[in-house]
């Protein structure tokens, strides 16, 4: 089964804690601190594997975690770093933050490797905290916590040309004739469930990659049928070929079919209709004598004034296909060759910096003010408030982040209490 969307959970490694220890040797009763640093947590890394063409592996494994850094040891021993986790994805995979749908990375073009989440920094051992006034610090820095995200992976096929059309108009037959692709072909609606890719080679002209986008139906842009799953593959293409049944074998109106497909493309992404398009009027071999000119003429009169050329072809006999392919090759040469890459909208590395905090009066106690927030809680986790150096760092953090200003704006007075989770402080200006 073709899988082009998956939801997974990823977690970087936690940094190892710093160690508290002191040198103990014979005849050295008061050796100095020698606690080692903790190791760095492992990173979460995404890489492109060009041997992959689906996201099927992610149906079975949905949680990916890097290794944690090991704690430091005595005698200045550094903890080992956590092992990185490398996640392989097909080229064209777009990585999004699951809750917001914002793009974190587009694994295409030059972006074939990305460190998505960095592991936590290892904590410093107590050897780093010795001062002239504190020669035996009993404090070491905890390692930074792990970072985690729930991701939505979407595979958007990378092809120069996209074939679009209703089911049974001959797209698979056309693709099998002009490329080395071998799609399954049968007379059933939605026979093609996979976006098949093939390479078109032309004598004396540039070849190109062509994708048979599975049959589109009315309402596809609203997710009817497998609409969204199919339409996302068209977003990478630079030229569109509309294949229609010019002979009306199944009683379809080719002009109406093209208009309906254009409506679905526009509803999904209006920019799709700005791309160069051609119409392949297929099954001319099935037109009854005398109807050939009529059917093709009606198509040309309808669409060529809009700049969309019409090519009568037969995917079965090969008639007219050569002219169509060389015209498409020229169109590609005239269009921008820059790969379509989705811009980054979400930056995991900024999460910690943007974590909010709240400053408020206690609703139950007089002269008590509450300061809370994830970033503040994390700061308390790696700050030793019992040391002079740690307390100075804490005060600077409160001032630099505007927390003291907010307390004063709320009317705090000397001697009032500031409660930050499990810590309480008397406020003095």
TrEMBL record:
The superkingdom of the source organism is: Bacteria
Q: State the top-level EC class.
A: hydrolase
What molecular function does GO assign, one term?
GTPase activity
Q: GO biological process annotations for this chain's record?
A: ribosome biogenesis
Annotated NCBIfam families: Obg_CgtA, Obg_CgtA_exten, PRK12296.1, PRK12297.1, PRK12299.1
| Subunit details | Monomer.
Boundaries of each OBG-type G domain copy?
159-333
What function does the entry list? Answer: An essential GTPase which binds GTP, GDP and possibly (p)ppGpp with moderate affinity, with high nucleotide exchange rates and a fairly low GTP hydrolysis rate. Plays a role in control of the cell cycle, stress response, ribosome biogenesis and in those bacteria that undergo differentiation, in morphogenesis control.
Q: Would you tell me the Gene Ontology cellular component terms?
A: cytoplasm
Q: Provide the protein name.
A: GTPase Obg
Ranges of residues in domain Obg? 1-158
Protein's gene: obgE
Provide the cofactor list for this protein: Mg(2+)
Q: Which positions in this protein are listed as binding GTP?
A: 165-172, 190-194, 212-215, 282-285, 314-316
Upper lineage: Bacteria, Bacillati, Bacillota, Bacilli, Candidatus Onthocola
Ranges of residues in domain OCT: 349-429
Give the main localization category. cytoplasm
Q: Does the keyword Cell membrane apply?
A: no
EC number(s) recorded for this UniProt protein: 3.6.5.-
Instruction: Could you list this entry's UniProt keywords, alphabetically sorted.
Output: Cytoplasm, GTP-binding, Hydrolase, Magnesium, Metal-binding, Nucleotide-binding
Q: Give yes or no: UniProt keyword Magnesium.
A: yes
